[in-house]
Amino acid sequence: MDDLETRELRYFVAVAEELHFGRAADRLGMAQPPLSRAIRRLERRLGVQLFERDRRGVALTGAGAVLLREAGAALDAVAAAARRTRRAGDAKRSLVLVTKAGASHELLRRLLDTLANEPGAAPVEVLLCEVGEQARLLRDGHADVAIMHRPFDDLAGFDTEDLYVEGQVAILPAGHPLASRDQLTLAEVRDVPDLPIARWPRLDGSYPDGPGPEVRTQLQLAQLVALGKTLLVIPASSRAWQWPEHVAVPVVDAPDVTTVIAWPPSSRSPAVASLVRSATMLRDTAPPSLAGRVPPGSPGPSRSDARP
């Protein structure tokens, strides 16, 4: 029998993460014997051993490692479904739009202004996050739609519309010699001994190798640049968070960045559809301050009947 109950999965995950039945039982607020029996029943139903048990303790088997990975995704999906269901049943709820703090500021401002003037448009709550967090917030149901950037953000599994394409700039300390340049190349910004490029965590939480400081928040990054400890290369439109102690210099050979609007493919929300249509209509009227280009072949406002 292949059906698994969420209760069983929660029990299993607790034991797999604690690797101790007693601690797992305390975490779950239950006695240890029924937890042990539940895990035994789960192993019998699946026909595999999930844990190695001996005097030294508990360890996951290969099959257990697979179930731990799959169970986490399944429990996250169930939690996301519950959040979306509660939100869909709230007639007064806001539409949650998530974006990186400081990113695509001009686009975001124009989009919110457009929606505010549209009769019957749902109110929009803006959720500002750190780099790389939009995908998680969309998947777990905390957000309905996101502004994201290709190739940096995780777009796997989402429906998307390209909005505009732009170049990148180096953000440097104002007093650094490179800050007086009209333009730079990637080779130049990668070869500054006194100003190594900051390193962001990968999707798995690890950091790439390199001499630059490890950062997790844009506030950390901004202060390190202002102190002359690092530099970074970002989309030109993300300069909105630039401090007076920073200078932005175009990096002429940096890869282009495409700003996209993304949403879960399962969404059938008229409010999400309206927001996506508004964003694609703004695409063809981007002001010079965005320094962007409409992606080649992108459909224009005629896609207004599109539905996420």
From TrEMBL:
Keyword Transcription regulation: yes
Gene source species: Actinoallomurus oryzae
SUPFAM superfamilies: Periplasmic binding protein-like II (SSF53850), Winged helix' DNA-binding domain (SSF46785)
Keyword DNA-binding assigned: yes
Domain HTH lysR-type, chain residue ranges per copy: 4-61
Biased composition regions of type Low complexity, renumbered to the chain: 292-308
Protein known as: LysR family transcriptional regulator
Ranges where the record places region Disordered: 284-308
Keywords for this protein: DNA-binding, Transcription, Transcription regulation
